[in-house]
Amino acid sequence: MSAAPPARLSEAPWRTRDASAAIACTTAETRTCQQLHHALAERQQQLRSHGTTSADIALFEPDPWQFVVSLLALWHLGHRVWLPGDDRPETRQALQQRRIPWLSPSALPLPSARATAPRPCWGPLAAEATAVVLFTSGSSGEPVPLAKRFDQLDSEVAALHHCRPLAPGCIISQVSHQHIYGLTSALLRPLCEARPFGLEPAWWPESVSRLLDTLGVSALISSPAQLSRLPESLHLSRHPHDIFSSGAPLSAEAAATAERLLAAPVTELYGSSETGGIALRRQAEGSSWQAFADVETDIRDGLLWLRSPRLDTPGQWYCHADRVAPGAGGGFHLLGRADRIAKIGGKRVSLVSMSQHLEALPEIRRAHCLVIEHAGGRVGAIVEADSAAQPADHHSRRALIDHLRTRLAEAFETTALPRFWRFVPEWPVNAQGKLTRATITRLFADLDDRRRVRWLGTRFESADHCRVTLEVPERLLQLDGHFPGRPIVPGVAQLDWVVHYCREAFAAHGDGQCFERIKFPLLLLPGERVTLTLQRHDARIGFRLDSSRGCHASGRLLIAPRTTDLDP
Amino acid sequence: MAETAQTPLERSLAEMIIETLELEDIATDDIDPEAPLFGEGLGLDSIDALELGLALQKHHGIRLDSDSEDNRTHFASLRNLAALVEARRAT
């Protein structure tokens, strides 16, 4: 393509464009360069009268226009702009501890009335100066500030432009500009490539459809969260020229569906806050990632190493914590993180930090957070609470989860909060003291098979005596229709558990033949936690199913040595 | 238990929400028709909103509004969601 190369941020292209040039647009209006200058000058005036002297200022502003006006106003006044990813109490506190003032443009005093419009101060933007400081989760889980110079951001814009220049039209975005991807793709590229950026929220597919129909859209800046959830009924009269996705890889199916429904190529970008853009792919053309022309990659010990002009030290090789395998055409395939950083809804979450936050609570002894692939990549938590805090039934479990989610919400975004909780009576380790993959799978097995009771641990008191902790999932299949409006666990389901766990505990002694003296003294309800006690005497296994309310089932199972190798 | 009684439509929407989002701790009775579904309240998030948009379309043939503010209102509570389904049935 023969598009002109993008302007550099250090050249401040917004300063010299025509007064009538479109900087941003909505379905109703266009904001011109002149309006930008005016707003920028007013913002600088506000900042001055506010007495903002610190070199570092934190900016959190969801509105793209207000954000850009503030960002440019601060840049030209010589400030370094810190971009927190959210405005949670813990985030604000972390900045406060660094003595970095938090700027909320809407809270600034209104500019004083003047006869003549104020003129912007166009302080220089030096290529080697720090432009923004982003936050990213380091491998320890603590948010690590990451400074980006103007030349690093310029390199990012130029690399993206080189791969896919922005076609004429408006750039609309579904991602946050407080992060590197949204900042460069949705705002800096439009500013440097002279394309207007959209100002209306575009979270919903229906909103995107309206914006596409009304504005001439050049590119949709999106992420897997949205592109993998597009409705089949999305009928567009106009389509974007390009779709970009970043944050996490798109599934092949989602990429194909998005291309079909939006009728435009989906370019996936791969990179990180530390490295900037590394590679890209369009799955319609191939599944392996191809590095940008200016990035050198290497695979060492299964990890991705790279050299890039966008790194802090461009000449040096940098090890990225992503595991990779060689792919077609000199590219590579991503195999997942080598550390415990997860991507939830496109944002990095430190699972280590989340576990530590839980463990810091007085009633929690131990916690382990992990991504449950089954549930579209949501987080699950294995938690050992003090015995007094262990949930006994639906209500106490909900109350505990609600409490834990509320506490975690002080530090993590809602999408990252654990959705699946397993409150284990004791930490479920193997003989080597490790929490194994097999145990984890077992703890969450009821998610994939609704016929299963939730297993939370087995403890052997002796070779013939064990206790199995179980919980009745609210969505247990055996509760369906038993009974409508007042679900209780059928006795036959409870006996199934007895047979299952007897076989697991005492398989060497034979299989269950028949039950004796069965009693169901108390109804068992969804959400209740029960202990199944099994005690073997020769060919008889006595069982009891107890909850905090009392005994729900008891009896004996007679076993006989197995006569055939075939499982019943 | 919910503070206010659920209508049959609200109950079926509560079931749809639980099924769609695989909320393992929530029973249909737990969803108060007037309590917020997002943020505090049920604690749903922006990704859930997209999932629910899809489910509404699949089960009730409803397309959401293109206006984010309107959708915010529709998804504010179970009652509002039921009102949306009722309104679209009528038209």
From TrEMBL, chain A:
<feature type="domain" description="ApeI dehydratase-like">
    <location>
        <begin position="462"/>
        <end position="556"/>
    </location>
</feature>
<dbReference type="InterPro" id="IPR000873">
    <property type="entry name" value="AMP-dep_synth/lig_dom"/>
</dbReference>
<dbReference type="InterPro" id="IPR029069">
    <property type="entry name" value="HotDog_dom_sf"/>
</dbReference>
<feature type="domain" description="AMP-dependent synthetase/ligase">
    <location>
        <begin position="119"/>
        <end position="281"/>
    </location>
</feature>
<protein>
    <submittedName>
        <fullName>Acyl-coenzyme A synthetase/AMP-(Fatty) acid ligase</fullName>
    </submittedName>
</protein>
<dbReference type="InterPro" id="IPR042099">
    <property type="entry name" value="ANL_N_sf"/>
</dbReference>
<dbReference type="Pfam" id="PF22818">
    <property type="entry name" value="ApeI-like"/>
</dbReference>
<dbReference type="InterPro" id="IPR054545">
    <property type="entry name" value="ApeI-like"/>
</dbReference>
<dbReference type="Pfam" id="PF00501">
    <property type="entry name" value="AMP-binding"/>
</dbReference>
<dbReference type="GO" id="GO:0016874">
    <property type="term" value="F:ligase activity"/>
</dbReference>
<dbReference type="InterPro" id="IPR045851">
    <property type="entry name" value="AMP-bd_C_sf"/>
</dbReference>
<keyword id="KW-0436">Ligase</keyword>
Automatic annotation (TrEMBL), chain B:
<dbReference type="Pfam" id="PF00550">
    <property type="entry name" value="PP-binding"/>
</dbReference>
<dbReference type="InterPro" id="IPR009081">
    <property type="entry name" value="PP-bd_ACP"/>
</dbReference>
<dbReference type="InterPro" id="IPR036736">
    <property type="entry name" value="ACP-like_sf"/>
</dbReference>
<feature type="domain" description="Carrier">
    <location>
        <begin position="7"/>
        <end position="89"/>
    </location>
</feature>
<protein>
    <submittedName>
        <fullName>Acyl carrier protein</fullName>
    </submittedName>
</protein>
